[in-house]
Write a structure and sequence with these properties.
single chain, alpha+beta, four-stranded antiparallel β-sheet, 4 helices
Length: 135
């Protein structure tokens, strides 16, 4: 269960879909463009904040479960996964939602739990594969 309200003073405290790691995320609406700021240990990742609405719309359009996938920026993402969509030239931003060169991957790990915290999606893990769908 996530805690926090998603502000810099009260970030969401989330866990990766596998439950293996805890991280925080908050919306920075003062930045241009607005960003999701993810803190994983000492590593700070940023994603375009519009990723939340865009990903939700993608999940609604898919109408079914979508595998999350997980890959660092330097590795290819499995086709048909949230990770692949988050870096695809056919998504609404025409490429990467991740903003920090070298650390733009792992979209499928860190962004979907925010949709769950917002009550807009659910994640299910079966046989070490996690998937998500809109609710």
């Amino acid at each position: 269960m996530a805690t926090g309200t998603g502000t810099s003073d009260d970030p969401w405290v989330l866990t990766t879909p596998s439950g293996g790691s805890e991280f925080t995320m908050y919306l920075d609406t003062d930045s241009t463009p607005p960003l999701l700021v993810c803190q994983v240990g000492k590593t700070r990742l940023t994603y375009l904040a519009r990723a939340l609405d865009d990903l939700h719309a993608f999940l609604v359009d898919s109408g079914d479960w979508v595998l999350l996938g997980a890959a660092d920026e330097q590795k290819p993402a499995a086709d048909g996964t949230v990770e692949a969509w988050g870096r695809s030239e056919s998504n609404p931003v025409g490429g990467w939602y991740g903003q920090k060169k070298g650390l733009r991957g792992r979209f499928g790990v860190y962004v979907p739990p925010v949709l769950v915290a917002q009550g807009r999606a659910q994640i299910e893990v079966e046989s070490r594969k996690a998937r998500i769908r809109a609710i």
